[in-house]
Amino acid sequence: MENLSLKMRLSKKDSVLDLGCGEGSVTLPIAKKVANLTAIDSSEKMLELLKEKCEKKEIANVNIIQGDLEEIKVEDVGKHDIVLSSRSFNGISNVKDTIANINKIATKYVYITLFGPNNWNFQKKFYKSIKKEYHELAPYHYLVNILIEMGIYPNVENLEIQSNRTYDSVHEAMNLGKWNLDNFSDDEKIKLRSYLKEKLRVNKEGKLENPEDKADWVLIWWKIT
Fold it and tell me: Which neighbouring-strand residues pair with 86?
């Protein structure tokens, strides 16, 4: 995602470790600006999509590894100039140890983005419509407080993303819309498909979108000293 890559201090000589890379929406713009990038995610499906995108865009400097960001250590991946974890920290439990491991890997900077307070309005309305309990993720200032406790005083910035999330199809919206489908019954999945068909509209580019389905990201970053 270009907005994030513009905020990062990147050079053509840098090596980047991208933890929780997903299908590569952030990974690929950054890979074009650095020497090499190691992309790690726990989802085999997301990594398959990332690999397909790399091949389609002829991006050859991305090394793809399946793994859990909470378990990655410097012994596993070596040192990298920059460590990035975009939209993956909201749900982890072992925050302090993960941050300690990341600080051992990074030699220049660490960048973390988390979902902001207005991120899930679209999803919350669907949960409410089927009377399903919605479990809130930990707020971004929870991580900020932990970092300060660890003696790390980060920079904090709202990325002010203006565009809506877009999808090629309802099927893609279900799979890439962070719905946690494993927690849905078959009946709930049918209701979700109907909800998306009703709420998503075709934009000028021929993509599906909804004005309430807008990303709300907070960037937290610090320099390694």
Answer: 113
Question: The pTM is what?
Answer: 0.81
Residue 1 pLDDT grade (very low, low, confident, very high; cuts 50, 70, 90): low
Range list of β-strands (E), the chain: 15-19, 36-41, 62-66, 80-86, 106-115, 155-158, 201-202, 208-209, 217-223
At residue 33, the 3 state secondary structure works out as coil
- Reduced to 3 states (helix: H, G, I; strand: E, B; else coil), residue 152 is coil
Burial label for 210, CB within 10 Å (0-12, 13-18, 19+), is buried
Q: How does DSSP assign 61-110, residue by residue?
A: -EEEEE--TTT--HHHH--EEEEEEES-STT-S-HHHHHHHHHHHEEEEE
Stretch (H or E) spanning 141: helix 140-149
Nearest-CA neighbor of 87 among 150, 23, 34, 145? 23
